[in-house]
UniProtKB/TrEMBL annotation:
Organism whose genome encodes this protein: Naegleria lovaniensis
SUPFAM superfamilies given in the database record: Bacterial exopeptidase dimerisation domain, Zn-dependent exopeptidases
Domain of life of the organism encoding this protein: Eukaryota
Protein name: Peptidase M20 dimerisation domain-containing protein
Cofactor(s) this protein cannot do without: Zn(2+)
């Protein structure tokens, strides 16, 4: 039986295909136009017997001038943001995990306040920043959110970052700062050779750059500024969110989805230009406890039962029978036993199970259970208990119910002439996978950075400008989608 929701989405998809056909028929005629939104077609809509005009725009055509403006604004913002240390701390028990994240949050608040027409500009008690660019249409349309995280990775220092802009990149060059090789062409040449003529930003050695995800923060800010200055670009309510503690996996728990007020959202936190993510791992945690019997070793004959001996056998057999992360890639799943703590009396092993398919996670858990059964029959005097806890699920299961999100990403990337459009499955969890399951369907689009969490991090200002165009075009395209319920409203 077709449910009401299913029927709605079928209608929605039909609507999007009609819009797609429409935009293709109009975009060709507008190929040689300049800055402003072109190919306006006026259709007559009969509302309560009254004839009203409604403008339906084709995709906005960005000019060279827009491009240069975006790069300049991005450079100013990005260089400023990366010099504010916002590293999060996995060992902290406060929220946010580091107070310094609020420093950037306050800078963003002030900037948002200086832009024309934004509403609901606020920081919550955890340090998350929210703002709304209200719709410029009369009709009710989808409320769309854009999110980026303010914190940076925990592995490498974000203190005293000195960004450098390498102008007009020439193929074959390393990116050097004062005789120090920050990016090696031998390693990253494939990516660098796509950036000939670009201005590329790196740090100066010894620190992160922080493009993950201050590139995303700068891009959202610049897109919103552009929209406030180009009111001819139609859009629904745009919700802006800058979040804390993504790098330690705790951000979404403290993000106020009803306050954010978007029906769907995009994190701007992906890597290379042209990529996007609508799929993440599903994840379970398995804890196995081996209980033996301890007694003074001098008088232990026939009585001591060493739990570690059995635990060691367990590890050995799991590694023989199941894929581990060091031999897994692309769409492979794995079983990763990450720690083992214990003594003669009691040993605990924790293993994480990861796969894009829930059914495979089940197989892994069954495989572990089989190994345990074997060990129980060989060591009847050792008690072995196993406990499986669900950690998170593939966001695709949620996003499949909103097919227009992925379709719009592909549409917008194609309209901006991107060559390698690739959906990259995320071999981990993201803020998006958590938010999607918390009631805010969230896909991830590229922010343009490379070599995340490394001293060799780099990002092209030209690619960042393309990300700005993606955000603007997504907002415009999705203004053709009718409203959807917002969680908590
Ligand atoms: Zn990130």
């Amino acid at each position: 039986m077709m449910t009401k929701a299913n029927l709605f989405f079928c209608l929605l998809i039909l609507f999007l295909f009609v819009m797609k056909a429409f935009s293709q028929s109009t975009s060709s005629s507008s190929a040689n136009s300049s800055s402003e939104s072109v190919s306006h077609e006026t259709i007559q809509v009969d509302l309560n017997g009254e004839m009203k005009e409604q403008h339906v725009s084709g995709p906005f055509q960005f000019s060279e001038h827009d491009d240069a403006w975006m790069r300049k604004r991005l450079e100013d913002r990005f260089l400023k943001y990366v010099q504010i240390d916002t590293q999060s701390d996995p060992l902290s028990s406060t929220v946010p995990s580091t107070e310094k994240q609020r420093v950037l949050a306050n800078v963003l608040l002030e900037e948002l306040k200086s832009m024309k027409g934004l509403k609901n500009i606020d920081m919550d008690k955890y340090g998350n920043v929210y703002a709304t660019l209200p719709k410029n249409l009369k009709r009710d349309v989808l409320s769309v959110g854009f999110l980026a995280h303010m914190d940076t990775a925990t592995e490498i220092s974000g203190f005293n970052v000195t960004p450098r802009v390498h102008r007009n990149y020439k193929d074959g060059e390393n990116l050097m700062v004062d005789n120090l090789k920050i990016v090696d062409y031998k390693i990253d040449g494939k990516e660098l050779s796509k950036m000939v003529g670009h201005d590329i930003v790196t740090a100066s050695g010894g620190t992160l750059l922080g493009a993950d995800d201050k590139a995303g923060v700068s891009e959202i800010m610049t897109a919103i500024e552009f929209l406030t200055e180009h009111p001819s670009i139609e859009h629904g309510d745009i919700q802006i969110g800058f979040t804390i503690d993504e790098e330690i996996g705790k951000g979404p728990h403290y993000f106020d989805i009803p306050k954010f007020s978007a029906a769907v959202a995009f994190t701007v936190d992906g890597g290379e230009k042209g990529t996007y993510n609508v799929e993440s791992f599903s994840a379970d945690l398995v804890t196995i406890v081996f209980t033996g019997f301890n007694i003074h070793p001098g008088t232990s004959f026939g009585r001591m039962i060493n739990s570690m001996k059995v635990a060691a056998k367990f590890l050995d057999r799991v590694n023989q029978n199941m894929p581990s992360p060091d031999i897994s890639k692309d769409r492979d799943g794995f079983v990763h036993c990450l720690d083992m703590n214990g003594n003669v009396e009691k040993t605990t092993i924790r293993c994480i199970l990861r796969s894009f398919e829930d059914s495979e996670l089940k197989q892994y858990a069954e495989g572990i259970s089989k190994v345990i059964d074997q060990l129980r029959s060989e060591h009847s005097n050792v008690t072995i208990e196993m406990n499986v806890v669900q950690q998170y699920r593939n966001m695709k299961q949620v996003l499949d119910k909103y097919p227009f999100m992925e379709l719009s990403i592909i549409d917008v990337y194609s309209a901006l002439n991107m060559k390698d459009i690739v959906s990259v499955p995320v071999r981990g969890g993201t803020d998006g996978s958590q938010l999607s399951w918390m009631g805010l369907p969230t896909a991830n689009i590229f922010a343009g950075g490379h070599n995340f969490h490394s001293q060799s991090e780099f990002v092209s200002l030209h690619d960042m400008a393309d990300s700005v165009k993606v955000i603007i075009s997504l907002a415009q395209t999705l203004s053709n989608v009718p409203p959807l319920p917002i969680k908590g409203h």
